[in-house]
């Protein structure tokens, strides 16, 4: 019966500061009163206790473990206890469940050619294990008024910027952009999407726009002049005869 109260138990690590375990529970569950999570490193007998908290945004219990260090071979043995009864045993290696922190300090700038340069910073710095490791990114952007029409671009190289071309945008609209990352040596999970940045694509008449308008207008004028000349000519011929 107790096992039915716990669903989708999983752990993720930012591989820098924390190992977070969470599980779904039934409504009205008081996580800190009903559950305890015991953990120990595989090679050391000392058992520690984590008191879970209720997540505000969902029916989840969350426990955050703060390891003193991270190394590739570090493994934790976990025991989840419900109202004093052991109900779940789990083994987790943080290096195998890395969920990196999202890129930070997202910014966007319009450049002379009319495109937009989206830039960001990595969330890790020395001596973090992930600092300097190979990382790939995904950028997504969309019209603010149409959030379901999303463009997603993969960046498969070490870069911290992306050029959004004006040709992929519609003039006169507000846009929203975000970015996430994945470390190729620790590929288990993508990060969450970063904080969003907004920008506006102004309607500016370009030389291409002028040319696109000039061609059909010129054609219409030529046709109008031709028709006028034709009628004038036929009238002149009729008058002469």
From TrEMBL:
Predominant place of localization: membrane
Origin superkingdom: Eukaryota
Location within or outside the cell: Membrane
Membrane topology value: Single-pass type I membrane protein
Protein purpose: Receptor for both interleukin 4 and interleukin 13. Couples to the JAK1/2/3-STAT6 pathway. The IL4 response is involved in promoting Th2 differentiation. The IL4/IL13 responses are involved in regulating IgE production and, chemokine and mucus production at sites of allergic inflammation. In certain cell types, can signal through activation of insulin receptor substrates, IRS1/IRS2.
UniProt record similarity statement: Belongs to the type I cytokine receptor family. Type 4 subfamily.
Name of this chain's protein: Interleukin-4 receptor subunit alpha
Taxonomic classification: Eukaryota, Metazoa, Chordata, Craniata, Vertebrata
């Amino acid at each position: 019966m107790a096992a039915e109260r716990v669903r989708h138990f999983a752990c993720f690590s930012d591989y820098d500061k924390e190992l977070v375990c969470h599980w779904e529970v039934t409504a009205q569950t008081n996580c800190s009163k009903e559950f305890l999570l015991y953990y120990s490193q595989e090679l050391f007998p000392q058992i520690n206790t984590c008191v879970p908290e209720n997540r505000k945004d969902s029916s989840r219990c969350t426990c955050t473990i703060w390891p003193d260090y991270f190394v590739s071979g570090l493994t934790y043995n976990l025991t989840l206890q419900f109202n004093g009864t052991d109900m779940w045993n789990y083994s987790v290696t943080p290096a195998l469940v890395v969920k990196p922190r999202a890129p930070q300090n997202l910014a966007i700038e319009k450049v002379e050619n009319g495109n937009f340069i989206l830039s960001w910073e990595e969330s890790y710095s020395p001596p973090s294990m992930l600092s300097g490791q190979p990382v790939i990114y995904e950028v997504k952007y969309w019209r603010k008024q149409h959030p379901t029409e999303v463009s997603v671009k993969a960046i498969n190289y070490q870069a911290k910027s992306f050029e959004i071309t004006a040709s992929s945008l519609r003039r006169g609209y507000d846009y929203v952009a975000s970015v996430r990352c994945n470390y190729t040596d620790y590929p288990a999970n993508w990060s969450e999407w970063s904080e969003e940045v907004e920008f506006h694509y102004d309607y500016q008449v370009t030389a291409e726009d002028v040319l696109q308008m000039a061609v059909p207008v010129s054609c219409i004028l030529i046709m109008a002049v031709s028709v006028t000349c034709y009628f004038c000519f036929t009238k002149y011929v009729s008058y002469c005869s």
